[in-house]
Input
Amino acid sequence: MGSHRIAVMPGDGIGKETIREALKALRAAEKLSKGALKLETTELDWNSDYYVKHGRMMPEDGIQILRGYDAILFGAVGDARVPEHVSVAQTILAMRRGLDQWANIRPARLLAGAPCPLKDKQPGSIDFVVVRENTEGEYADVGGSIFANTPNEVAVQSAVFTRRGTERILRYGFEMARKRKKQGLGKGKLTSVSKHNAQRHSQVFWHKVFEEVRKDYPDIESHFLYVDAACMDMVRKPETFDVLVASNLFGDILTDLAGVVVGGLGIAPSANLNPDRAAPSMFEPVHGSAPDIAGKNIANPLAAVMAGAMMLDFFGEVVPAKQIVKAVESVLADPQAPKTKDFGGKALCSEVGDEIAARLG
Ligand code: ATP
Output
């Protein structure tokens, strides 16, 4: 185990509340390690308040400052005072692109005690990971508009699929399927999600690269699904999935669906990885700032806590990462343990966080 420098960006709304609880769990894991794990955290107030004061969500050299850390623990941004495409572009998208966090990893595992909207699903029966391309594709910032606010107004947005970007994300997915199989966690299966029957250029290209890359992984059972079929199967038979790889937009939509299938935004974590480790990776709950429940201390902190565990795992701190996951699992599975409203309880965000920290102790 070692020492790690973490930039903590709680952001707006419930991000501030859930990241506070994630830090409690990380501190408890640190204490449990008896000095073997050291987490040096720096809190950065880069959020919508910062925007109101400075006209931007983070300092001009923000990305450069973040490069000085080993990882970023991020909450959420979103506030009525800042247009959402601005707050997201200047934080989440700026970090993903500026720090080349090209792999977005969103695990979906049904835990005992999590509210599954599908009938008769047993804990553990759903266990898959969506690997989403995170820096290009449909979210590439390429496009423009003309004749604004006239009847002739035109908007054009282009998707960008590079060989480098497409190949590396597919390879990452195959490597993950291999690793999960070796660890006894997965089925050794990969699903490439595409839409090459309708998008003749970018998606035919994606599928061509998939066909090339899969030849290097004969030990992995691989196939493709059109994105609409993948959405249906995620509801009809989610237990058949192991690793899914998708473009930026398809992955974004699929992972929200995946999150709901295993209990909702309250428990969905995500990692934005720079797998080359050339810059810090970013770990965040999938949920946004949720203005409707912000400031009430009632948000579910489990997603942020699990994001913290993913961060430790990426550092190679496998033992404390597992300890945090186990603590979350034990709180969830215990009918007497505090739960937030979205999980059928009445507990506060901080009470759930305290319970997780106590179980780590
Ligand atoms: P943003 O604009 O920042 O994305 P949002 O409210 O549009 O925020 P989310 O925060 O992602 O979107 O979530 C949508 C809704 O789901 C919230 O309004 C809230 O009611 C619920 N929700 C999200 N996260 C949580 C959580 N951690 N605990 C409880 N409920 C949550």
